[in-house]
Amino acid sequence: MADGYHARTAGPQKFGRIAMYALLILFAMYYLLPLFVMVTTSLKTLDDIRTGNLIALPAQITIDAWVKAWSTACTGVECGGLKNNFMNSATFVLPAVAISTLIGAFNGYVLTMWRFRGSDILFTALLIGCFIPFQVILLPMAQTLGYLGIANSIAGLIFVHVVYGLAFTTLFFRNFYVSVPTELTKAARIDGAGFFTIFWRIILPLSPPIIVVCVIWQFTQIWNDFLFGVVFSSGERQPITVALNNLVNTSTGVKEYNVDMAAAIIAGLPTLFVYIVAGKYFLRGLTAGAVKG
Amino acid sequence: MSSLSIRNVTKRFGALEVLKGIDLEIEDGEFIILVGPSGCGKSTLLNMIAGLDSISGGEIAIGGRIVNDLSPKDRDIAMVFQSYALYPNMSVRENISFGLKIRKVGKEKRDEVVNRVAKTLQIEPLLDRLPSQLSGGQRQRVAMGRALARDPALFLFDEPLSNLDAKLRVEMRAEIRLLHGRLGSTIVYVTHDQIEAMTLGDRIAVMKAGNVHQFGSPQQVYDDPADLFVASFIGSPSMNFVRAPVASSDGVIGIELFNGNEKLFFAAPKAAQKGLSEWIGQESCHGHPTGANHGRVIREPGSSESRAMPCQSRSSAADRSGHAYPDSPERYAGYLSHPSGNTRTRR
User: Fold this and answer.
1) Is-contact B20 B10, C-beta < 8 A?
2) pTM score, two decimals?
3) CA of B193: how far to CAs of B189, B190, B197, B274, in Å?
4) pLDDT of B20-46, one tens digit each?
5) What integer pLDDT is reported at residue A68 of this predicted model?
6) Among A50, A53, A165, A251, which is most buried by a count of CB atoms within 10 Å?
7) Phi, psi of B56 (to 5 degrees)
8) Which residues of chain B have a CB within 8 Å of the CB of A192?
9) What beta strand segments (E) does chain A contain?
10) CA of A2: how far to CAs of A6, A17, B94, B332, in Å?
11) Burial class of residue A67 (count of CB atoms within 10 Å of its CB; 0-12, 13-18, 19+)
């Protein structure tokens, strides 16, 4: 009987469901607990931290640590908080993301819609760029920057990140455009549209899903980058990641955990914001590009 | 409206020769079908006419003007694609007028054209929709509208109906035919569907492996196939082939068939006897249109119902000769061609 069948299976199914949720909650906690500790600690007073438990809620909520981290905390000899470095990061991250995304889109367009002799070899060569570790290019890049006269400048950092990001952005866009029928380009050519017109009027308007993926990826990479920041910039031009490191390592007497935590959250907020705003497009775009690759 | 000349056109990809010297003369206002199995080069040829693929050799002229080195936009053509290739980010109206906009046609003129085209194709209520909001048949119409908007010298269709369901396909087929009657423009239409080919075309070019095997009216291609390939490709259900040796009996040349142990001899037409002797002992193939015995294929008395061709059908013209024999002694009706050439003598 059908009912008997259901009665037999209902038990194990229910158990499986409970086990699944338990496991999911466990893993969610595993990842959320550090964030919880960071947020609560940043809202505590130093006394509270010293006397209280690590995972206890703050006895008294205060945003003093946040204010200090933002405007008065010392990074090395300077004591201006993270605000300057936050702006530094913003001034090179935004152009670097925009430029690398745009060039990636253009590369992808050429590599899929205007195939030429050797275009596949070129693409493979670009792919290898994804696997080159940061450390390998430090010295040659330093020399190049010096040669170009943009060493230790915002322009230099933008250049480094654009060059390094190109391999990834090209890969994203190329794989996305592979699934766009080339007949679209052909139709546009017959309609009389030229190389750039097709890109601007036909191909780019199709690209928002992959642009979102690319922007999230590039923003996260460049904003969170420490190595290029510490090597290719110095002093007041340092990005926020480097400043955060200095802030945490600068010890004048007491270790201010609440300020450290607040600073770390401030440094991480922009990427978190980008994920929350564009997250659903991120998943959609990743699969959209991956179907035909 | 204008004629199209394709003269000894070849296409090579590296060492691979995809088109091996195509010659087609297409007159003003003709509806031409390129048909053949997939991979025969028909789409490549269409792309070369459109200017989307380069020409390796020979020349293509539209309306007497050689277009080999012209870009697609300067060839005065319009093309309808299999996937419709509508611009997804533009409304139907923008899709239809995009080509005019690129060519800097004024807004008023553009609106006029869009309205005219929409009326012709009965897509007026759809003008402000996006392609994603249209059904397959509607997309097909819009794709045709985009081609119509520019009023080109030559229309190119690349398997435009193969993405539609069977019923719509029949409807659109009729509509394309009507449209051609109304516009009177020259059309080159690629398909692998022989029903489309037979019903739409004024003339059909049957292609295989980069060669045109036959270029003629649907009736010619069906009744009088140039070779074994055309005979087997056209017709549904396809033609039956019987292999039989050529033999001689009492000085008359014909073919031998066996029914069990009983040997049957079918004599060739008298007028064709001469010159057949050199074929004695060789095997020949005899095509028999399916259904003829049941009277479904209507032909005038005395026309061919059975024909013969060399069994190994190679694609060169020299192999296209063949013999024909009556398919039964009672219904003597056949024709024959000399093994040496292509000329056929009907009886």
Assistant:
1) yes
2) 0.74
3) 11, 9, 6, 40
4) 888 889 988 899 999 988 888 888 899
5) 86
6) A165
7) -80, -30
8) 73, 99, 102-103
9) none
10) 6, 22, 57, 70
11) middle
* CATH no., domain A73-288: 1.10.3720.10
Query: With 0-12 CB in 10 A as exposed, 13-18 as middle and 19+ as buried, what is B156?
Result: buried
pLDDT digits (tens, 9 = 90+) for A161-181: 999 899 999 999 998 898 888
Q: What is the Cα–Cα distance from A8 to A5, expressed in whole angstroms? A: 5
- Distance separating alpha carbons of residues A284 and A210, to the nearest angstrom: 9
Taking each helix axis from N to C end, the angle separating A83-113 and A119-128, rounded to the nearest 10 degrees, works out to 150
Contact criterion met (CB below 8 Å) for B199 and B173: yes
Domains in chain A: boundaries: 2-62, 73-288
- For chain B, where are the alpha helices, taking DSSP H only? 42-50, 92-102, 107-121, 136-149, 166-183, 194-200, 218-223, 228-233
Share of chain A above pLDDT 90, in %: 23
Strands B211-216 and B65-66: unpaired
CB atoms within 10 A of CB B301: 6
- Cα nearest neighbour of A184 on chain B: B85
Residue B304 reports pLDDT greater than 80:
no
Cα–Cα distance for residue pair B116/B124, rounded to 1 Å: 9
d(CA B163, CA B154): 23
Judge whether B50 is closer than 8 Å to chain A, CB to CB. yes
Reading the block at residue A185, the tokens are 């380009």
CB atoms within 10 A of CB B166: 6
What is the pLDDT at residue A104? Answer: 94
Interface of A with B (CB under 8 A): 181, 183-184, 186-193, 197, 201-202, 205-206
**Alpha-carbon gap: A63 to the closest alpha carbon of chain B (Å):** 48
